[in-house]
C-alpha cells in the first residue's frame, strides 16, 4: 500500500470512529441498520434510553449529531415531520457498527 493510500485509509477509519464515538449517534445508526428511515417514535425511544430530557436531546440532535452525520453523508433528514434516513455513505459504517452491536445492545433495551 502506498503512503498516500495508507493515509487515506487511516483518515477513513478516523472519520468512521468519530461518527461512532457517541452513544446516541450509534443508536440512530443502529435503528437505521434495520430500517431505511426512522421518525419521532424511534428518536423518542433513543432519547429515553439515554435519560435525556426532550430539550437536551433535541439540542444535541439538531446541533451536534445530525450535522455530523449529514456532513459525512451517512444520513439525511427532514424536519417536518422529523425523519432520518440512510444517506449515500451509510453502508460504509456497517462493519464497525455491527462490531459494536454486542457492546451497545438493541435500542429498545
Describe this structure in words.
With 109 residues, this protein is mostly helical. It has one domain (3-104): Arc Repressor Mutant, subunit A (Orthogonal Bundle). The protein is built from 5 helices and 3 strands. A 3-stranded antiparallel β-sheet has the order 1-3-2. A hairpin with a 2-residue loop joins strand 2 and strand 3. Helix 2 (23-33) crosses helix 3. The longest helix is centred in the middle third of the chain and has 18 residues, at 54-71. The radius of gyration is 14 Å and the shape is globular.
State the secondary-structure class.
mainly alpha
Look at the structure and give the CATH class: Mainly Alpha
Largest β-sheet summary: 3 strands, antiparallel
Backbone CA Rg: 14 Å
Strand/helix succession: HHEHHEEH
Low-confidence stretches: none
Supply the number of structural domains.
Answer: 1
Distance between the termini: 42 Å
- The number of helices is 5
Strand order, biggest sheet? 1-3-2
- β-strand amount: 5-15%
Mean pLDDT over the residues: 89
Which overall shape is indicated by the principal axes computed on the Cα atoms? Answer: globular
The CATH H-level superfamily is Winged helix-like DNA-binding domain superfamily/Winged helix DNA-binding domain
Task: Give the helix proportion (percent range).
Answer: 55-70%
Named CATH topology: Arc Repressor Mutant, subunit A
Please give the CATH architecture: Orthogonal Bundle
Amino acid at each position: 500500500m502506498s503512503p498516500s493510500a495508507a493515509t487515506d485509509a487511516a483518515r477513513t477509519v478516523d472519520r468512521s470512529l468519530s461518527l461512532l464515538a457517541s452513544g446516541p449517534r450509534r443508536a440512530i445508526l443502529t435503528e437505521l441498520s434495520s430500517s431505511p428511515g426512522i421518525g419521532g417514535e424511534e428518536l423518542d425511544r433513543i432519547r429515553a434510553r439515554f435519560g435525556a430530557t426532550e430539550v437536551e436531546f433535541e439540542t444535541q440532535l439538531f446541533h451536534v449529531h445530525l450535522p455530523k452525520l449529514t456532513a459525512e453523508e451517512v444520513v439525511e433528514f427532514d424536519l417536518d415531520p422529523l425523519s432520518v434516513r440512510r444517506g449515500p455513505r451509510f453502508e460504509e459504517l456497517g462493519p464497525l457498527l455491527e462490531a459494536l452491536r454486542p457492546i451497545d445492545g438493541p435500542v429498545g433495551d
